């Protein structure tokens, strides 16, 4: 199973700022000319529903100089079939950054209750640089250039630096003239162009994961045009973006502890230990064993770093138990050469994967941390991997100026976090292409304006953990939170028909009334996959 890789590959940068380019003001808004566009709607494709319509708008590459180069912005819609109940438009974003949202209206139309659906035209779009919206890229990315970075080891850090610099150079070469403008603030400005082109005074919004940050930024830049906003699976504005990646390291630890308790209670089934301490010891012994002598699992060579490479696994206790049981069985079958290397000596020679390479471990998820796997692969309009990766790094590196420029700072941070958060801390803090990115053209968006929006969160979300969802809620004064206790997985609303958060979200989208206080509900326990399926 591919883990960190295909959706996360990389992105680019501009090594130096463009000469004479002034930073856009914090309040820059789309120019009136772009607000007066009229979409020319047409059926998206003969093999799609007739009600699913597409159009293309034009937006400035640089809103500070709107008379210059333009980008295409692909949009789509499915209109309300009940004009008497229609309130306006519901703009949709599935996550990312780097994910196509053009097909999202079709999916939401199928999942949303009719009494809510009737109130909105569902509107999707490919954000600037993605898919059919003037896509950017970094050329052909090799397998070793995929991912968000590898484990930290002092003896191989120089190759980590080369990996990060090489990705930045490739992206600069292919898309360096556009990449500085692929940012969340510019995408929020594009959203307001969509609103105006549709003839709406305000816009409602349903955004997942990265889409929560995009929605939060819009609410601060255009508060008077913000109607009913649902922000599902929250990105903490105070952590963008290095801190969000590091949250995968810090927040994996409580998930790991929860898993050890769960597995210990089922020791007769999984055989990993009868106490949490014993389960933890089994896991770390397996990592050490693979560090000494990598073994073969379903035809792939597995190292200790591979076993640690996807912390999201432990947010699903059943899936993690099945995977670790399967890995242990493979390790137990493998011969152990006499006089093997010492524990932790992996990282040398052929046994160590280059940073970002795909983990061979089969599991219950399609990808490790990074771009939302479901969002990036959603529907027939999904953006290709290189495009998704280019946009991912463009946004993550270009939104904020909080990435260290000294490679040695990453080495120090990764060494520290490998001790503090041994499951994934060194992966999260290791060097990224952002170390070689150009400085952002404008600062990040402060969260100062009241935003009466609804945030939604699973307790055990592996990609935007509970702590980051709480950070989003706290940053947006006036917001309310719906927390699904024991909820697992990334994405809450409409994730399944019985999700407990569906009820308060449907009520808010229908009436516009926020709950009087934060809501806590209890999700029904998930139905586990058969053990064999999860283990593969």
Secondary structure layout plus pairing:
Layout: H1 32-35, E1 42-43, E2 53-60, E3 70-78, E4 88-93, H2 104-111, H3 114-117, E5 120-125, H4 157-175, H5 184-197, E6 203-208, H6 210-221, E7 226-232, H7 242-250, H8 252-264, H9 267-270, H10 276-292, E8 295-297, E9 300-302, H11 304-308, H12 317-333, H13 373-376, H14 385-398, H15 407-420, H16 425-429, E10 454-460, H17 466-475, E11 480-488, H18 502-511, E12 519-522, H19 531-535
Parallel strand pairs: 4-5, 4-6, 6-7, 7-10, 10-11, 11-12
Antiparallel strand pairs: 1-2, 2-3, 3-5, 8-9
What does this structure look like?
- Strand 8 (295-297) and strand 9 (300-302) form a beta hairpin.
- The chain has helices at 32-35, 104-111, 114-117, 157-175, 184-197, 210-221, 242-250, 252-264, 267-270, 276-292, 304-308, 317-333, 373-376, 385-398, 407-420, 425-429, 466-475, 502-511, 531-535; strands spanning 42-43, 53-60, 70-78, 88-93, 120-125, 203-208, 226-232, 295-297, 300-302, 454-460, 480-488, 519-522.
- The protein has 536 residues and is α/β, with parallel strands linked by helices.
- Helix 5 (184-197) packs across helix 6 (210-221), helix 8 packs across helix 10 (276-292) and helix 8 crosses helix 12 (317-333).
- It starts with 31 loop residues before the first helix and ends with a helix.
- The strands form two sheets. The protein has a ten-stranded mixed sheet with strand order 1-2-3-5-4-6-7-10-11-12, sandwiched between helices.
């Amino acid at each position: 199973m591919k883990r960190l890789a295909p959706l996360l590959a990389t992105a680019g940068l501009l090594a130096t700022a463009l000469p004479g380019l002034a930073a856009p003001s914090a309040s820059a808004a789309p120019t009136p000319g772009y607000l007066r566009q009229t979409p020319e709607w047409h059926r998206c494709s003969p093999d799609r529903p007739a009600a699913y319509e597409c159009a293309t708008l034009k937006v400035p590459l640089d809103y500070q100089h709107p008379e210059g180069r333009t980008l295409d912005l692909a949009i789509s819609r499915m209109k309300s079939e009940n004009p008497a109940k229609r309130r306006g438009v519901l703009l949709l974003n599935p996550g990312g950054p780097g994910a196509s949202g053009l097909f999202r209206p079709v999916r939401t139309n199928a999942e949303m209750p009719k009494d809510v659906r009737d109130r909105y035209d569902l509107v999707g779009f490919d954000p600037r640089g993605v898919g059919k919206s003037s896509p950017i890229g970094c050329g052909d990315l090799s397998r070793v250039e995929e991912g968000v970075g590898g484990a930290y080891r002092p003896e191989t850090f120089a190759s980590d630096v080369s990996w990060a610099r090489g990705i930045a150079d490739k992206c600069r070469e292919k898309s360096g003239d556009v990449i500085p403008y692929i940012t969340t603030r510019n995408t929020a400005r594009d959203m307001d162009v969509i609103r105006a082109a549709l003839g709406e005074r305000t816009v409602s919004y349903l955004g997942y994961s990265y889409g929560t940050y995009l929605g939060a930024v819009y609410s601060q830049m255009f508060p008077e045009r913000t109607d009913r906003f649902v922000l599902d699976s929250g990105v903490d504005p105070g952590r963008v973006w290095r801190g969000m990646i590091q949250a995968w390291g810090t927040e994996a630890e409580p998930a790991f502890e929860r898993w050890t308790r769960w597995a210990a209670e089922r020791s007769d089934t999984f055989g990993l230990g009868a106490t949490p301490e014993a389960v933890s010891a089994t896991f770390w012994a397996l990592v050490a064993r693979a560090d000494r002598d990598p073994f073969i699992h379903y035809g792939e060579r597995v190292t200790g770093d591979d076993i640690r490479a996807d912390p999201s696994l432990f947010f699903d206790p059943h899936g993690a138990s099945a995977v670790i049981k399967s890995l242990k069985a493979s390790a137990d079958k493998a011969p152990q050469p006499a006089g093997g290397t010492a524990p932790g000596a992996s990282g040398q020679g052929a046994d160590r994967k280059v940073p970002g390479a795909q983990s061979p471990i089969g599991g219950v998820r399609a990808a490790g941390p990074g771009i939302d796997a479901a969002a990036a692969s959603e529907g027939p309009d999904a953006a290709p991997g290189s495009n998704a990766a280019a946009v991912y790094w463009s946004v993550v590196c270009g939104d904020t100026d909080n990435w260290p420029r000294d490679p040695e700072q990453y080495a120090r941070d990764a060494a520290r976090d490998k001790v503090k958060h041994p499951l994934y801390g060194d992966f999260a803090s290791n060097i990224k292409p952002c170390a070689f990115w150009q400085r952002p053209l404008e600062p990040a968006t402060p969260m100062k304006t009241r935003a009466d929006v609804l945030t939604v969160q699973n307790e055990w979300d592996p990609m935007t953990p509970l702590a980051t969802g709480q950070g989003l809620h706290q940053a947006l004064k006036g917001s309310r939170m719906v927390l699904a206790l024991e909820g697992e997985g990334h994405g809450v609303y409409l994730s399944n028909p019985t999700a407990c958060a569906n009820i308060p979200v449907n009520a808010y989208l229908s009436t516009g009334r926020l709950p009087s206080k934060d809501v806590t509900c209890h999700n029904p326990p998930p139905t586990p996959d058969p053990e064999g399926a999860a283990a593969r």
